[in-house]
């Protein structure tokens, strides 16, 4: 079997759509294909970029053209200038990046939580509520703090059920609202991230510069993580699972 055929077969097995990370994880399970190269992941990237049967949905997410209509019916739509502000595209983008964050947390063996209001939203073929490992938000502090964090888009928890990281995905909503949540929770020893398109980085810097957030800015309590970097970290986290001995 040729390499491009193995990639297409893997996409078929994954329901016609897959992240690069999933392809990197699954394609080598096909025993009829040999990858005689020192850079197989680069070969996979080249195949999805060049093969006429495959189309790009967003950075790091690819699908078979034969499944395009079915995927669009499920709300998995290629974003363009005409539909970028549509409800379908906004909801897909938001749940997709939530799913990447939950997947990374799971791979890192952390507890993962998404708000119950989002549990029925889809990450490709899986509900976020099924992907997360925690069905209820741990009672890690006073009720007022737990309640304040209950709508944060993704939370990672350590093995003591204390919050390791807070993530707010800001595709179209006001970044200031998320910064206010972080402001109220800043006394916890927890990393905080605004996840958004790189085009919103300047807006993030402007909002973080408000007097109300000056201490958080000076203490570097909040970081900006763009979508492309998130996708790379997701893919790299999967690739690291194949390495049995790490030197850190």
Write the layout of secondary structure elements.
Elements: H1 3-13, E1 17-19, H2 20-26, H3 40-50, E2 54-58, E3 61-64, H4 68-73, H5 87-107, E4 111-113, E5 122-123, E6 126-127, H6 128-131, H7 143-149, E7 154-157, E8 163-169, H8 175-184, E9 191-196, H9 201-208, H10 214-218, E10 222-226, H11 227-240
Parallel strand pairs: 8-9, 9-10
Antiparallel strand pairs: 1-3, 2-3, 4-7, 5-6, 7-8
Helix pairs in contact: 2-11, 5-11
Describe the structure in brief.
By secondary structure, the chain is of the alpha+beta class.
Walkthrough of the structure:
By secondary structure, the protein is α+β, with helices and mostly antiparallel strands. It folds into 2 domains: 3-78, Winged helix-like DNA-binding domain superfamily/Winged helix DNA-binding domain (Arc Repressor Mutant, subunit A, Orthogonal Bundle), CATH 1.10.10; 87-236, no CATH class. Helices cover 42% and strands 17% of the residues. The protein contains 11 helices and 10 strands. It has helices at 3-13, 20-26, 40-50, 68-73, 87-107, 128-131, 143-149, 175-184, 201-208, 214-218, 227-240, and strands at 17-19, 54-58, 61-64, 111-113, 122-123, 126-127, 154-157, 163-169, 191-196, 222-226. The chain has a 5-stranded mixed β-sheet with strand order 4-7-8-9-10, sandwiched between helices. A 3-stranded antiparallel β-sheet has the order 1-3-2. Helix 2 packs parallel to helix 11 and helix 5 (87-107) packs parallel to helix 11. The longest helix has 21 residues, at 87-107. Residues 244-248 have low confidence and may be disordered.
């Amino acid at each position: 079997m040729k390499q491009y055929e193995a990639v297409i077969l893997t996409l078929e097995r994954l329901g016609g759509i897959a992240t690069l990370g999933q392809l990197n994880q699954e394609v080598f399970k096909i025993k009829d294909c040999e990858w005689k190269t020192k850079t197989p992941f680069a070969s996979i990237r080249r195949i999805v970029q060049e093969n006429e049967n495959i189309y790009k949905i967003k950075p790091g997410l690819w699908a078979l053209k034969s499944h395009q209509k079915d995927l669009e019916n499920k709300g998995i739509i290629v974003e363009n200038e005409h539909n970028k502000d549509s409800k379908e595209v906004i909801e897909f983008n938001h749940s997709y990046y939530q799913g990447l964050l939950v997947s990374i947390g799971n791979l890192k063996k952390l507890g993962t939580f998404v708000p119950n209001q989002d549990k029925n939203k889809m990450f490709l073929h899986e509900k976020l509520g099924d992907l997360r490992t925690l069905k209820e938000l741990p009672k890690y502090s006073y009720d007022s703090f737990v309640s304040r964090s209950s709508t944060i888009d993704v939370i990672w928890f350590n093995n003591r059920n204390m919050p390791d990281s807070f993530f707010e995905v800001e595709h179209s909503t006001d970044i200031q609202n998320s910064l206010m949540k972080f402001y109220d929770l800043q006394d916890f020893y927890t990393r905080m991230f605004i996840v958004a398109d790189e085009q919103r980085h300047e807006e993030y810097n402007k909002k973080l510069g408000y007097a109300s957030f000056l201490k958080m800015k000076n203490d570097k309590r909040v970081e900006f993580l763009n979508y492309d970097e998130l996708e790379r970290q997701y893919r790299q986290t999967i690739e690291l699972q194949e390495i049995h001995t790490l030197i850190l």
